[in-house]
Amino acid sequence: MAVAKLTEEERTIALGDLQGWSLASDRDAIERTFTFADFVEAFGFMTRVALLAEKADHHPEWSNVYNRVEIALTTHDADGLSQRDIDMAKSIDAL
Amino acid sequence: MAVAKLTEEERTIALGDLQGWSLASDRDAIERTFTFADFVEAFGFMTRVALLAEKADHHPEWSNVYNRVEIALTTHDADGLSQRDIDMAKSIDAL
């Protein structure tokens, strides 16, 4: 099933709801950087996100350097930002 | 304890031993991309690498997009490539 890209209005509302996430400068995605005490804390967080992502069948593009985790969310099927990204961002923030 | 950066000779020998790893183009690091069947396989691999890395107290810089994991190894204390990176690359390859 195709996933709808957010309209400008939906996007404005959705981004207003999210704390700490910003639009990527180079593509239609939202990004957030999380910083932890150390690698164990960072990877523990990643493991929880991985389980969420697999359950939702919506996977982040992410990177980790020691205590820092950068997450980008976008929807390939929508060729941009969709409600699935907003929902995943909220789920991640709720961890 | 400071970690010694590999000499040119040591680096040539070490890289000759490693399969699939290449020097980064933009800094003194080695990189390899691993591709798996799906996200679960990719994250399972990352979890094993995370445990290795924590045990060795030598952490990768890495990213993941669905079934693909890109790993870069470098030693900040050596300001470049050290034997610790070579050892970690071998440990990862042995998984």
TrEMBL record, chains A, B:
<dbReference type="GO" id="GO:0008124">
    <property type="term" value="F:4-alpha-hydroxytetrahydrobiopterin dehydratase activity"/>
</dbReference>
<dbReference type="InterPro" id="IPR001533">
    <property type="entry name" value="Pterin_deHydtase"/>
</dbReference>
<comment type="similarity">
    <text>Belongs to the pterin-4-alpha-carbinolamine dehydratase family.</text>
</comment>
<dbReference type="GO" id="GO:0006729">
    <property type="term" value="P:tetrahydrobiopterin biosynthetic process"/>
</dbReference>
<dbReference type="InterPro" id="IPR036428">
    <property type="entry name" value="PCD_sf"/>
</dbReference>
<dbReference type="Pfam" id="PF01329">
    <property type="entry name" value="Pterin_4a"/>
</dbReference>
<keyword id="KW-0456">Lyase</keyword>
<protein>
    <recommendedName>
        <fullName>Putative pterin-4-alpha-carbinolamine dehydratase</fullName>
        <ecNumber>4.2.1.96</ecNumber>
    </recommendedName>
</protein>
